[in-house]
Specification:
single chain, about 150 residues, alpha/beta, Rossmann fold, 2 domains, five-stranded mixed β-sheet, two-stranded antiparallel sheet, 7 strands, about 20% strand, elongated
C-alpha cells in the first residue's frame, strides 16, 4: 500500500519502471508500544520487581550519611536497584519528591537508625505507618519482593 501512496518506483535492469515491494518490521515500535502500555496500566506506579529504581535510601540528618551509604551498598550487593538521597533538605520534601517519582520504597535513616542498625521503610501510596526493621530483615524482604513473578518458586 505504501509504495503506491508514495508513488515509489525504481528502474530495473530491463530499463522499465517497477513498483518496489516494501517490507515493514516494527520490532522497536512494538517494544515501545508495549512499554507505553505497561506505563499506562500501572499509571507509572510499577510493582517493586519492575520499577527502574526500587528503593531510595535517604537521610533525616547529615550525621547519618555514612550509615546511609553503608545501607545502600548492602542493598546494591543484594541486587536491589537503589539510589541515595543525601541532600540537606527536609525529610517531608524528600518523601514528597520521591513519591512523585513513584519510587516504590523509601528507606529513611537518621541518628537513631544508625545507632540501632535499623531502617524505616515507607511504601509508596501506603497509609500505614512506616515499618522499622533491621537492615538484614529489610534486605531479605526487599530482595524477596523484587523477584519477578515468573521466577518465584
Amino acid at each position: 500500500m505504501l509504495p503506491e501512496r508514495l508513488d515509489a518506483t525504481y528502474i530495473a535492469e530491463d530499463g522499465a519502471k517497477h513498483r518496489p515491494i516494501m517490507l515493514h518490521r516494527a520490532i522497536f515500535g512494538s517494544y515501545e508500544r508495549f512499554i507505553g502500555i505497561l506505563i499506562e496500566h500501572y499509571a507509572g506506579k510499577f510493582p517493586l520487581w519492575l520499577a527502574p529504581v526500587q528503593a531510595v535510601v535517604t537521610t533525616i540528618v547529615s550525621d547519618a550519611d555514612d550509615y546511609a551509604k553503608q545501607v545502600a551498598s548492602r542493598l546494591e550487593a543484594a541486587g536491589i536497584r537503589i539510589e541515595t538521597d543525601l541532600r540537606n533538605e527536609k525529610i517531608n520534601y524528600k518523601v514528597r519528591e520521591h513519591s512523585l517519582k513513584k519510587v516504590p520504597l523509601l528507606l529513611v535513616v537518621g541518628k537513631r537508625e544508625a545507632e540501632e542498625g535499623t531502617v524505616a521503610i515507607r511504601r509508596l501510596g501506603s497509609e500505614e505507618r512506616q515499618l522499622v526493621m533491621s537492615v538484614d530483615e529489610a534486605i531479605a524482604m526487599i530482595a524477596e519482593e523484587a523477584i519477578p513473578p515468573d521466577l518465584k518458586r
